[in-house]
Each structure stands twice: as C-alpha cells, then as structure tokens.
Design brief:
By secondary structure, the chain is mainly β. It has 3 helices and 25 strands. The strands form 8 sheets. It has a 4-stranded antiparallel sheet, with no helix packed on it. A 4-stranded antiparallel sheet has the order 8-9-12-13, with no helix packed on it. It has a 4-stranded antiparallel sheet with strand order 15-16-19-20, with no helix packed on it.
C-alpha cells in the first residue's frame, strides 16, 4: 500500500516525508527522500492525490522538490526515481485530485495554469504533453475542483464553483469532451456549496461535502446521491418533473431548435409524454395530467 499525506516520516523511516510504502508483515519503505516544499513551512507541503498511470505512480498536491529537482505540485515515480512530468511541468496551485479515464490523466485542483497553459482548475495529460481544458468555471469563493469521478460515461467534477460555461453549476459539472457543463439543468446559483468527495456505487453517484441543498429541488445536508435517469416530463433535465418544467416543455413543443439551443444536454424526448416517439401538441394533455396527478 502507498500512503500520501502530510507527515515528516512514516514509522520513523528516513526519506518518507509525505509519501511512503507499507509492506506486509509490517514495514515502511521510502521513496528516495520523499517530496516536500523546500523553503516553505512544513505545514504547507503535502500529497493530496495519487493514481497509477502508464506503469508509473503519479502524485499531486502542494510540494516542490525531492531535494534534487523542482516539480511544481505534480511528479511521477517510475519505481526507482522521481521525475517531472515534462521539463516545464509547473502548476501554479494545488493539485487536489487525479483521475485516469480512457488513456488520459485528468488533473484538477486550485490552479489557473499548468506548464504555461491557461487552464482554470483542470487539465489533461496524454502521456507526453499537457492540454488545457476549457476555463469555464467561475469561482464561488476560492473556486477549486476537489474531486473527479467517471459516471454515466462522463467526467464529473465536484468543488467550490458557482457556474460552468456561464450556467449555474453549484459545485458540480460534467465534461462533455470540449467544455464543462452543469451536471444538471436548473442547478441554481447557491454560493457556499462545496463538494469534497464523490464515489460511484451501483447506478448512483454519491456526493459529499458542505451543503444544505444542491439545487432548488434537491435538499440534502452534506451528502446526496445522484442517479442519471430519463424522467418523463422532465423537460429541463433537472432530474425531477415539476412546475419548473413547464417553460421548457412549451419550448420543446413549439420550437425544437430553440429547445436544443437552450437545453443542449437534455434528451428532447423527455417531453414525449404520450409515448408517440415525437414531441407534439398531443403531449400537452398528458403533460398536464402527469404534472397535476390527474
């Protein structure tokens, strides 16, 4: 087992500052001299994230060096030695989380540039070079991404941000391959929502952090579960069929192109309440009946 965090030594073994390996039946091993923030207080250097990628261990956090070279908050361990990701791998803020999906390494945290590329809170490493992800986040206060997960085929980000791509996101966003979008429409703009951890279990994405609600219709204190479902009549794609869907439903019935522009991540057929395979005026009666329970 490999352990990372904030410590001077594991079990008193030299060279285990902030990262160490535990082997059965009970011994700590060093990663050379460990990694730390030379020239800064001990309280400010730590490893926050680790993952395996292309046969190496990748670590992220707030640290500068192993005593012989400068890293800039991310480093690669090849089994023998620490390496920079590239000759210019400096990240100008903390790396909070790492995720591997489909051969790519996703890096996120509290930064605005990586290897000289402007990229707010997130970036992609393909094994040889960095790519900036769209800087579509607006900070709520400090604004970092704390956690990443793969759910329903998409990369999901959780953190302390209030919007993505100009739409309210309330601490949760989804990467569609080219831009960050709100995880669900009508998320609401509620400053102070802080998503700290996400885990997928079964068909649900469990979300934990500091919040009282994650949207106008989702009241939950500090922990909640999100499930990707197709809800008939949920025209605004917030996961619920409520009076909040009326405007979106009317747009779907009267102007499909305007609906697609306003709700680009929604399934148009959510408004097909009568099950005909089309969205027409014939859906109005069933929509009203479903909404009123009549």
């Amino acid at each position: 087992a490999i352990v990372g965090g904030h410590f001077l030594a594991a079990g008193g073994v030299p060279g285990t500052r902030n990262v160490a390996s535990w082997s059965s039946p009970g011994s700590w091993s060093a990663f050379n001299s460990g990694i730390y923030g030379e020239g800064v207080p001990e309280s400010l250097d730590h490893v926050l994230a680790m993952t395996a990628y292309q046969g190496a261990l990748i670590v992220g956090g707030e640290f500068w060096t192993d005593g012989s070279q400068v890293f800039g908050n991310i480093a690669r361990w090849d089994g023998t030695t620490w390496h920079r990701m590239t000759t210019d791998s400096f990240i100008n803020g903390a790396v909070e989380t790492l995720l591997v999906d489909k051969g790519l390494l996703y890096v996120a945290g509290d930064f605005t540039s990586i290897a000289g590329l402007a990229s707010r809170y997130s970036a992609i490493w393909d094994g040889s070079q960095w790519s900036a992800m769209a800087s579509d986040f607006t900070a709520s206060t400090s604004g970092p991404i704390y956690t990443l997960a793969v759910y329903d085929g998409s990369i999901i980000a959780g953190g302390w941000f209030s919007s993505a791509s100009g739409e309210p996101a309330t601490g949760l966003a989804r990467w569609n391959g080219s831009a960050w979008r709100p995880l669900y429409h009508n998320a609401g703009n509620m400053p102070g929502v802080e998503v700290r951890q996400m885990r997928v279990f079964g068909d649900r994405l469990f979300i934990a952090g500091a919040f009282d609600k994650l949207g106008p219709d989702l009241v939950s204190s500090n922990i909640a579960a999100w499930r990707a479902v197709c809800v008939t009549g949920d025209a605004n794609c917030d996961g619920f069929m409520t009076v909040g869907d009326i405007g979106a439903f009317v747009t779907a019935v009267t102007n499909s192109m305007a609906y697609a522009a306003q709700f680009p991540d929604c399934n148009f057929l959510n408004s097909d309440v009568d099950g005909s395979g089309e969205v027409t005026v014939g859906d109005i009666g069933p929509f009203v009946g479903l909404l009123t329970g009549s």
